[in-house]
Amino acid sequence: MATQPLRILHCAMFSVNKYGANYYSGHTRLSNGFIRNGHFVYNFSYRDVAREEAPLGIKELGMKKMNKRFVETAENIAADVVLLGHAELIDTETLRELKRRLPNCKIAMWWVDWWRNLVKYDAVMKDRMPLLDAVFMTSDPDFVREKYPPLRELDKFFFMPNSCDPSMDTGNAYALDEHKHDVVFIGRSYGGRDDFLTHIKKNMCDINMGVYGQQRKDFVLGRAYLDLISNCRIGINYQRDNAIPLSSSNRMIHLAANGCLVLSSKIPRIEEIFSTEEVVYFDTPADCEEKIRHFLNHPEEARRIAEAAQIRAHKEYDNKIISADIIEKIFA
Questions:
Q1: Per the CATH hierarchy, to which homologous superfamily does domain 173-316 belong?
Q2: Rounded to an integer, what distance in angstroms lies between the CA atom of residue 28 and that of residue 303?
Q3: Of 162, 258, 260, 313, which shows the fewest CB atoms inside 10 Å?
Q4: Distance of alpha carbon 151 from alpha carbon 126, whole angstroms
Q5: CB of 174 closer than 8 Å to CB of 304
Q6: Of 298, 262, 297, 258, residue with least CA distance to 281
């Protein structure tokens, strides 16, 4: 176990070229958590570096040089830990070279996207696994390992909850007298969400509902996104795949941490993250509609549940706690 400040190279999609539009992203939250725990963090935005190092700013032409800069950066800061946030453009040979130059450096990876997207980078991931000291995922590790053979090459594979950040998640929606929307849903319409969205749009026209994210013009980014969810009574969390144990997008923690009453589709083992005293779970679109109407008519009950979820989010899923757990498990 590390007992002194570490130098961490955090390689993730920090989207420098989006100028703060995604500042609340999970990788920034993790970096903030490491820093609050006393570690040094260098954020390496691998896709931005690939563009910067490429002729005409074409990312695909800059990947070889980006990989070289990645190793150079690790050497320059004498990294104790390299943490790969997806980082699918980092070559396996690059990780081998990093190990040759910094033999004591730990290499770990996190994955917060839909786990099936790993298959898109199958060749990279198969080669990468034996070089990793740990992998962290926002889905049940045993479930994913069974479905995705490359992970069987790895000894250390852990569940990682999505984290909240006290400097970002400052909303208190349940305490407001007036709200922008009674109900908000933010997310793409693909996957299993089409039927759900069709139902709520057709059957809940009488409710002040905000639906965002289906088209580019409906995207809400930056502070506007956090302000939006902080000013709605109820927030809906609906996965594109509700069969993966423990799996939920970071939207759930965002809603809970900012004081929304969260209504979520039922997901296996999700009550280990938030109990039925903290989040309201539904089975079908019709069940969701019924529960929305109930809680809009019972605001004190809604407030009590939303407040319980907010307390748990900030107490158990604070980024200091999540990042400390990552370090502990990497060095265990």
A1: Glycogen Phosphorylase B; (3.40.50.2000)
A2: 29
A3: 162
A4: 8
A5: no
A6: 262
Mean pLDDT of 19-46: 96
Instruction: Report which residue type is found at 252.
Output: M
Q: 50: part of which helix (H) or strand (E)?
A: helix 46-52
Nearest to 215 by CA among 240, 190, 233: 190
Tallying the residues shown for the chain, one arrives at 332
Cβ-based neighbour number of residue 162 at 10 Å: 22
Q: What is the mean pLDDT of residues 31-50?
A: 97
**CATH homologous superfamily, domain 7-163+318-331:** Glycogen Phosphorylase B; (3.40.50.2000)
Phi and psi at residue 250, to the nearest 5°: -70, -10
Mean pLDDT, the chain, as a whole number? 93
Using N-to-C axis directions, what is the helix angle for 285-297 and 193-203, rounded to 10°?
A: 50
pLDDT of residue 306: 98
> Mean pLDDT lowest for which of 108-112, 185-189, 233-237?
185-189
Place of tokens 């943490």: 83
Q: Please enumerate in sequence order all residues whose Cβ is within 8 A of that of 249, keeping only pairs 6 or more positions apart, or say none.
A: 162, 187, 237, 239
Residues 305, 311, 313: CA angle, nearest 5 degrees: 100
Model confidence pLDDT, tens digit, residues 143-183? 999 999 888 888 899 999 999 999 999 999 999 999 999 99
81 beta partners: 8, 106
Give pLDDT, residue 78: 98
Nearest to 11 by CA among 104, 128, 158, 100: 128
CB atoms within 10 A of CB 118: 21
Give the residue from 34, 39, 42 showing the smallest Cα distance to 14.
42
Is residue 57 predicted with pLDDT exceeding 80?
no
**Residue spans in the chain of domains classed CATH 3.40.50.2000:** 7-163+318-331, 173-316
Rounded mean pLDDT of 242-247?
A: 91
